[in-house]
Amino acid sequence: MKTILNVIWLVLCGFWMFLGYLLAGLLLCVTIIGIPFGVAAFRIGRYALWPFGYMAVDRHDAGAPSFVANVLWLVLAGWWLALGHIFTGIALCVTIIGIPLGLANFKLIPVSLMPLGKDIVPTDQPFTVR
Predict the structure, then answer these.
(1) Of 44, 50, 51, 46, whose CA–CA distance to 73 is shortest?
(2) Block means of pLDDT (10 residues each) for the chain, length 130 residues?
């Protein structure tokens, strides 16, 4: 079932959201200071490309620097990526078939707003430590 949902997701909105994260990551990697933000954008973009069967969990070693970096991320790229998830989530929830896909978009909003200090893990291993 996860594979079917992921393929439908990829066709309807996953590819476009992935391109948004890719663009954000490339723009942020232009400067040396933005490279950690670009890496986070690529990581979350891969999650946005194939979200079913994975979940975002907090890293326990992330501290105050991650919080400060998340605030910068929110100002630089997070708000418009979250808007993309909101708009596509609402559009997908209009149909009955699109409701699980819309809910997946809404699941990605907190991660798109504050991606630093998070890991993407399979849903059957949410408590594994990397």
Answers:
(1) 44
(2) 85 88 90 88 89 85 84 86 90 89 91 87 69
Alpha-carbon distance of 44 to 57, in angstroms, equals 12
For residue 6, what are the contacts with CB-CB under 8 A and spacing of at least 6?
14, 50, 51, 52, 53
How far apart, in whole angstroms, are the C-alpha atoms of residue 70 and residue 123? 24
Residues with Cβ < 8 Å from 61, sequence gap 6 or more?
A: none
Q: 12 CB contacts (<8 Å, ≥6 apart)?
A: 92, 98, 101
Q: What is the 3-state secondary structure (H, E, C) of 7-72?
A: HHHHHHHHHHHHHHHHHHHHHHCCCCCCHHHHHHHHHHHHHHHCCCCEEEEECCCCCHHHHHHHHH
Please state whether the predicted TM-score (pTM) of the whole model is above 0.85. Answer: no
